[in-house]
Specification:
The protein is 21% helix and 31% strand. The protein is of the alpha+beta class. The strands form ten sheets. Strands 5-15-12-19-10-7-6 form a seven-stranded antiparallel beta sheet. β17 and β18 form a beta hairpin. The chain is globular.
Length: 531
């Protein structure tokens, strides 16, 4: 299309289109030609009778596309079979789909339909106890073809049909290991699209022609992310050089076999089964090191930005503080910048935190605070009337350490003293209602899988994508600071029932209330009387 605009204006030029970029370069051979073309095309031009913005800028150099780092080599375990079905069969499959009923849904990037089991994009899981409409009989001939080219000892029982318009795509991701068996098959119908694969510094751009079957298994399935850029055309390298190909509507049939049980792959750094069992391989020494690197040091580094963004008290925490008796002594364990240490003049408030810089901020505000680790509180037994621990215990990386922190809260409380604990919930969607944490993100996002190797301790943890559902209980959550800096904080997000179960193991506590509050699991505890 750009060539059609330039050809009537300039005879000699080169059009250079870097792969997977939204811009291109027009290389001209004289300053006069460059100036003349710029004046002709910069601004608003007419395309198909409509005014369309086209912006140009001068540059002294252009990139050498020969150094483009996207490869056409297939990742290990990836196989493409072209023309696996006939044009008649393609037409039949396309005509069999209706997108105007309740069984299809609109995602941010495309439309989808599910058969066999519904794939839940928030958690990247399927509910094995709730099968849905089976894969239609008219699609069964495909199972026979699959076995001819990729024989596996099962039939595929989950089908996702994707509908892509030009300009739509799918974010890079690795299909969840524990949910599906090894092989994933994707049949492309309609328009050809380029699918991009990536593993660390290795990249591959694979053209998927219509009626082709893409088979992902082994390393390609378990350790390479794949996705489609949301563009209106694909840039590709041919024998005649770099060219573009306009996209039309693409329909893909993705077949998978749901898995019962854990994944047994050899790629632990990308595997949710291995990541969910991270706490099983963390001992106390490793836990202390992880928390020092990904909690204590991070909060010291982000302390000023944390203080600038944390002012408003959570309503139910304020309600708990207001319920205390006149003259009660309140201890805020992990008080941060002290947002719960002001107001409520009827009680005496003290705080403690592990971060030296946050303590300096609290001192500057005139609060009564001490530097302390929540595992070893510097207070006497039975000396405090009420304790709160808001968004603290989820930073401890083993169950034993989390239990020890709760034990310390009980130890310093006087008999009949009350305690309020808040921790992040893994469930960020409750009763079909999204929390503010998800609402402030984009519509429906699919999680990508990346990990951080903690080389000092031989542990790999998944890195969470902000404003999406949690896919693992133990992970690193980014803190993005204005003006630069991206820091990772360790979190253990609690599943439903996990916090009260942990509290029940501390014998001196009685659980008075358990509730869910905007993406947090919360408990109110009371210390038993001393006999």
């Amino acid at each position: 299309m750009l060539q059609d605009i330039i050809d009537p204006i300039i005879a000699k030029y080169d059009l250079i289109m870097p792969l997977n970029k939204s811009y291109c370069f027009i290389k001209l051979y004289s300053v006069e030609d460059a100036s003349y073309l710029y004046n002709k095309i910069h601004g608003i031009i007419k395309i198909n009778g409509q005014n369309t913005p086209l912006y140009a800028a001068f540059t002294e150099t252009v990139p050498d596309v020969e150094y483009e780092d996207w490869s056409a080599d297939f990742p290990p375990g990836l196989k493409l079979i072209e023309d696996i079905i006939t044009e008649e069969e393609e037409t039949m499959l396309l005509n069999s789909i209706s997108w105007c009923n309740e069984k299809s849904c609109d995602l941010k990037h495309r439309k989808v339909k599910h058969f066999g089991y519904e794939f839940q994009y928030g958690s990247n899981k399927v509910n094995l106890d709730k099968p849905i409409t089976p894969i239609p009989e008219e699609y069964q001939f495909l199972q026979v073809l699959f076995k001819k080219y990729h024989n596996v000892p099962y039939d595929y029982d989950q089908l996702t049909i994707n509908h892509y318009l030009p300009g739509q795509g799918i974010p890079p991701h690795i299909d969840t290991h524990s949910v599906f068996e090894d092989s994933i098959l994707s049949l492309s119908l309609g328009s050809a699209y380029v699918m991009n694969f990536k593993q660390e510094h290795k990249k591959a751009a694979i053209l998927l022609p219509p009626r082709s079957l893409l088979i992902m298994s082994g390393e390609a399935r378990y350790a390479w992310s794949h996705g489609i850029y949301p563009k209106h055309n694909d840039v590709m390298r041919t024998t005649n050089g770099i060219t573009t190909q306009l996209r039309g509507t693409r329909i893909s049939f993705t077949f998978r076999k749901v898995r019962k049980g854990n994944c047994l792959c050899n790629f632990p750094e990308y595997c949710d089964t291995k990541q969910n069992s991270t706490s099983d391989i963390i001992d106390n020494e490793v836990a202390s090191g992880i928390e020092n690197l990904y909690v204590h040091k991070v909060y010291d580094q982000i302390s000023h930005h944390f203080d600038q963004t944390r002012h408003k008290q959570w309503p139910n925490v304020s309600k708990f503080l207001q319920s205390l008796n006149v003259g009660d002594i309140l201890l805020d364990v992990g008080c941060g910048n002290g947002k719960y240490l002001y107001e409520e003049k009827h009680i005496f408030k003290i705080g403690c935190d592990r971060s030296q810089n946050l303590m300096k901020i609290c001192h500057g505000k005139g609060f009564e605070v001490f530097s302390s680790d929540c595992l070893y509180l510097p207070y006497r037994d039975n000396s405090i009337d009420a304790v709160i621990s808001i968004a603290v215990i989820h930073h401890l990386s083993t169950s034993e350490r989390r239990k020890q922190a709760i034990f310390e809260l009980a130890r310093v409380l006087r008999p009949n003293g009350k305690c309020l604990i808040y921790v992040w919930a893994k469930e960020q969607e409750k009763d079909s209602v999204q929390t503010a944490y998800l609402k402030y993100g984009s519509n429906i996002k699919e999680n990508t899988v990346s990990t951080q190797k903690i080389t000092e301790y031989g542990v790999s943890l998944p890195i969470h994508e902000n404003r999406t559902n949690f896919t693992s209980t133990d992970m690193l959550v980014p803190w993005k600071r204005k003006g630069g800096g991206n820091f990772l904080r360790y979190y253990h997000v609690f599943e439903e029932g996990e916090l009260p179960q942990l509290c029940s193991e501390v014998s001196s506590f009685v659980i008075k209330n358990v509730y869910y509050d905007e993406g947090n699991w919360c408990v109110i505890l009371q210390k038993k009387k001393i006999n």
